[in-house]
Amino acid sequence: MLKRVEARQVRTGMFVEAIEGAWQDPFLSKRRFLLRREIDAQKLRKSMTGVIINTSRGLDIDGLPGGNIEIDTKAARETIQKSMQVLESVFGRLQHGDGISVDQVAPVISSVSKSIDQNPTVFLSVTRLKSKDEATFLHSISVSALMILFSRHLGLDETTVQMLGTAGLLHDVGKLEIPLEILNKEGPLDEDEIKMIRDHPEKGHAILSRQEGMSEIVLDVCLNHHERIDGKGYPRKLSEAQVSLHARIAAICDVYDAITSVRPYRAPWSASQALKWMLGNEGHFDRRLLKKFALCLSVVAVA
Ligand SMILES: [Fe+2]
């Protein structure tokens, strides 16, 4: 569907069919293109009055896929729906102390991996919308997809990529032990509640350690995804040298998904706002890795 948007509403991920007014930039003078880079979006916002976008080929004004990307969106939704069912049953088994094996989540990893490969923009847009009940599952699927996307971008070997995808799915399993009222609480948390939330990496690690043959990568990511480069993370306040590459990747993907998600009680940040905030958040992330993450997202036209 074609729509006219005001220049100030232009964002990356939109498919531009036509631009109003004269335009000298050789890149933007191509009349039809997918707006991939924030710098080009800024140029359009500054110099144009309005743009015609095609929502069947890119994002709509609200940052979600337009109504006509039906086929891609439907496929992504189906993948996510099936993945959520498998994940729900895996988390349920873990919660009841039953065993699981990595093989049980393998079909989820392969379908998420295929889907993110085919159309990352659509896949990540669909997972942005999280209702309270499904937030943890959808967050897990989204982090898994981001970790697969990013680790492939970094050129890691395929076995490690699959393990990082699995780690993304299982990293927050310790949240199963936190009551939903606390996880979904809108106001400030008291000290006990903060402690309960901060215990989730260790609780998750304990749950996963009981599973036979659980990969070291999955265990490491589960325990250390809230550690920070400046040593102010939790649960163990690890120093920079102690935080593995896998945990650093997870920390970036985890926070990025959390702040770009659409939640009922707060407005989401756009990809570029999120990356800007993360880059400005000194000491939290591995900056070199974070810059590569930004590049990875700009390549797939999410940022
Ligand atoms: Fe977490």
Structural notes for this entry:
It holds the Pfam family DUF3391. GO terms for molecular function: phosphoric diester hydrolase activity. The chain is mainly alpha-helical and 303 residues long. Helix content is 53%, strand content 6%. It contains 13 helices and four strands. Strands 1-4-2-3 form a four-stranded antiparallel sheet, with no helix packed on it. α3 packs across α5 (135-153), α5 packs antiparallel against α6 and α10 (216-224) crosses α11. The radius of gyration is 20 Å and the shape is globular. The two termini are 22 Å apart. Fe (ii) ion binds next to loops.
CATH superfamily of the largest domain: Hypothetical protein af1432
CATH architecture of the largest domain: Orthogonal Bundle
Number of helices: 13
Instruction: Kindly report the spatial arrangement of strands forming the biggest sheet.
Output: 1-4-2-3
